[in-house]
Amino acid sequence: PTGCAVKAGTTYEYLAEGKWKFSKDVDEVSADGTEDGKGKLVGVLFDPDEYELGQPFDLGASGEWTPDADGQLFVRCQEPWKDINDENAGTISLKVKLKGKGTPLVNPRGR
Hints:
3-stranded antiparallel β-sheet
């Protein structure tokens, strides 16, 4: 869990920094993952009232996102659940904020 509760129709900005590795056979990747989407940062909303997860959605290393439902934001590395194992390593740090509020998120890669 990210500890981030979001509201439907509200636009958020996010920035994910760091690298992770999802297999011993691949190099570390950023939250953008590989060209085919493996290792990409994905999110899912948890509805605490219904106690269910929504559908996963792509995030990547930076951008804007407007949820279509209220909920708690959970994130993970895009990888089939059966492949998550001891070969996974690394850390991604995620910042989320309301669009247009506070200090802008600065992506060192200029994206």
